[in-house]
């Protein structure tokens, strides 16, 4: 989202909460309705028999209010946006939230060793995530520069303008490309990073709002991986449910397509 806001040339809060959030809520509601009817249709078609499973309760010693801590970065971005309080960068907010969690854990346990042990796990997770993100960003920059060099951007703009409604056609082309790439690779980040570098140049040359191109492409990359049988989340869910990944993709297909259509329509209506 941070990278998408940068490509859209909008403040993070405005992009995430004022532009993307309403579109996402509309898509989620429509997907939920489509999901309900699509699953019932597939259950009747395959004559599925439902039964209640015994689920062992997860026991934890952490207080219930710890569930709020993962949401503190979002609250921090909203509070420290320069309107309600001092304007802080997202990285500053994240570091502050980590320190807040560490202080709360120390007050609860009075064990510095336990606190630093937990922080070490968090830092290792951050390192693994950042390593893959950095590699994707570098590869995306090289890929975008290569496409520009071979004339892909000018060809894409010419194709879109030949249909008369250049902005809409360009948006649909980027959505389809990103969706297919996500379905093929099983990754939601890689396809988006690969093409987001092109957005500012495409938007400037076509005279459209960068957010008009970024938002549908961002959602297409996230939705596309749920249609990939090689996606990590699909493989994990199919393993837990003890069904084929292709069955999971079949059950997610219609709701995802409905959600993507809603995103495109809502973007056309809400993003100038």
UniProtKB/TrEMBL annotation:
Key word Transport present: yes
Pfam families named among the record's database cross-references: DcuC
GO MF entries: C4-dicarboxylate transmembrane transporter activity
Keywords: Cell membrane, Membrane, Transmembrane, Transmembrane helix, Transport
Source taxon at top rank: Bacteria
Source species of the chain: Serratia marcescens
The keyword Transmembrane helix is annotated on this UniProt entry: yes
NCBIfam families: DcuC, DcuC_1
Transmembrane stretches, start-end: 20-42, 63-82, 88-108, 129-157, 163-183, 252-271
Protein's cellular compartments: Cell membrane
Membrane-topology descriptor: Multi-pass membrane protein
Name of the featured protein: TRAP transporter large permease subunit
Family: Belongs to the DcuC/DcuD transporter (TC 2.A.61) family.
Chief localization: membrane
One of the record's GO cellular component terms: plasma membrane
């Amino acid at each position: 989202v941070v990278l998408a806001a940068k490509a859209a040339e909008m403040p993070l809060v405005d992009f995430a909460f004022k532009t993307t959030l309403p579109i996402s809520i509309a898509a989620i509601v429509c997907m939920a309705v489509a999901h309900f009817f699509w699953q019932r249709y597939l259950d009747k078609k395959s004559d599925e028999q439902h039964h209640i499973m015994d689920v062992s309760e997860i026991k934890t010693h952490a207080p219930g209010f710890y569930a709020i801590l993962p949401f503190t970065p979002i609250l921090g971005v909203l509070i420290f946006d320069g309107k309600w309080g001092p304007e802080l960068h997202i990285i500053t907010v994240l570091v502050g939230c980590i320190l807040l969690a560490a202080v709360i854990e120390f007050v609860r346990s009075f064990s510095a060793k336990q606190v630093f042990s937990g922080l070490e796990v968090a830092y290792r997770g951050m390192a693994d995530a950042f390593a893959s993100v950095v590699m994707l960003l570098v590869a995306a920059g090289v890929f975008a520069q290569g496409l520009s060099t071979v004339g892909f951007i000018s060809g894409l703009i010419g194709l879109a303008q030949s249909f008369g409604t250049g902005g809409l056609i360009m948006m649909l082309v980027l959505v389809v490309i990103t969706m297919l790439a996500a379905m093929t690779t099983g990754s939601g980040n890689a396809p988006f990073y690969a093409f987001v570098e092109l957005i500012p140049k495409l938007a400037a040359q076509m005279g459209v709002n960068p957010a008009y191109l970024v938002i549908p492409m961002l959602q297409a990359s996230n939705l596309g991986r749920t249609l990939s049988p090689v996606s990590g989340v699909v493989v994990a869910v199919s393993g837990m449910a003890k069904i084929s990944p292709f069955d999971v993709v079949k059950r997610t297909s219609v709701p995802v397509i409905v959600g993507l259509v809603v995103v495109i329509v809502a973007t056309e209506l809400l993003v100038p």
